[in-house]
Structure formats: C-alpha cells, structure tokens
Amino acid sequence: MNPVLVSVALLAIPDDELSILLLREPGTVWGLPGTPLRAGERLVATAEAALLAGAGVSGVSLEQLYTLDGAPGEEPVQVAYLGLTRAGRHTLTPGDGIVDAAWFALADLPALGPGAAAAVALARTRVRAKAAYSPVVMDLLPATFTLGELQAAYEAALEAPLDTRNFRRDVVAAGIAEDVGRTRAEGPGRPARLYRARPGSFAVDAGERRALRAIEEALAASADDGEKPA
User: Fold this and answer.
1) Count of alpha carbons within 13 Å of 67, Cβ hemisphere only?
2) Less CB within 10 Å around the terminal CB: N or C of the chain?
3) How many angstroms separate the CA atoms of 46 and 107, rounded?
4) Domain 4-116 superfamily per CATH
5) Distance in angstroms (rounded) separating the CA atoms of residues 132 and 211
6) Which residues contact 70 (CB under 8 A, 6 or more apart)?
7) At the topology level of CATH, where does 133-220 sit?
8) What is the pTM of this model?
9) What is the rounded end-to-end Cα distance, in angstroms, of the chain?
10) Tens digit of pLDDT for each residue in 124-152?
C-alpha cells in the first residue's frame, strides 16, 4: 500500500493581496505545510496537525482540494486540503525542523517544488472560482469589516476590479453582510459603517460581467493544462 502525504494550501489576505502560507526547512526551497498520514488518523486531522506543527496555526476550516494517486507501491498518494483564514488571527511559529514560516503573495511566490507549485495553482483557481458564485471570501475577513474591506477581499480573490456602487448594492440586497451599528474611521471623510457576515448566498452581479468573463477565461486556460498536479 502506498504511503499517503497530506499537505495544506492555507490562504489569507495579510496585505491586500491573496497570499499563501509557506514553510522552509533547512537547505530546501519553500513548500506547503505537510506530513505523512499516520495509521488510524483521519486525513483532515493530519492536515490540521501539519498546520499546527509547521507554523503554530490552528482552528482553520479545511476542505479537500485534490487527491493524486502515486504509482502502485512506489510514489506516495498526495492529498491536499484548502483553507481560508484571516492572517491576523495567527502568530506564525515555525515548528521543529522548520527554518521559517511566512505569507507569500500569490503574485510573487518564491521558488517551489513541482508538487507545491501545482497545489498552489489549483488552490488559487478554486478560490477564484468559488468567489464568483459564493460568499467564501467572508472567511478571509475579521469578525467585523467595512464594505470597502469586503470589496477589497473580493477583488483580491477574483484578481479583478469590481464596480463599487454595484458591488455594495448587491451585497446589501443579498443580506450576507449585517450592519452592526458601529463605525470606523478609514482616513478622510465620514467613518465607514461596520458589518459582520450572515449566512446566505451571493454571486457576482450581472453588472460585473467583464470581471466574470476574465475569471471564466482563466479557468478555461487552467483546465486545458489539467486540473490535477503533474
């Protein structure tokens, strides 16, 4: 039976850019948090353990990103998980055998091993696709946020600009953001109202067709290269 290697692509927006958590071991390139599956342990528990042991990160909701079978009796089975979090929630603490743990913008990644590079690309595509039809971006925000911060997070995930008036109108109409009755100053002008996430569904409005078309074209190009890591 092939061994199983579990890794995690954890995304956040620490500096207005969609970023991924990477670890570096001595003398190696950067890679994803990961660890072999232990006997009797659930896959998601192994993924959670990899985050905790590698960077001191815990309490993140994870979903399976892909499974890639290795050659029978030779290569390990690769299982990757995807997680979204607020960067400020976590103080990154490199674990035993880890030289450094850091957030890297997806637009400016260091050298990665082939497996990690493919997993990062797939995580980026998955989040971009989900952001176009669901409120998944809420997982990247703090408990309270302004509509400006919400739009900035969507733009980071979609990698495309959105029309401010249409976006805010549609968010309010969808009911996924609830006014908490407080404000926060964001520079000159009136303080911005604060909101919190509410359950519901939200898709990029028809007014954002150009952004959505750009996403669909990028996904189509990605599909041509194959959805699974090589």
Assistant:
1) 8
2) N
3) 28
4) Nucleoside Triphosphate Pyrophosphohydrolase (3.90.79.10)
5) 9
6) 2, 76, 77, 78
7) Arc Repressor Mutant, subunit A (1.10.10)
8) 0.82
9) 21
10) 999 998 888 888 999 999 999 999 999 99
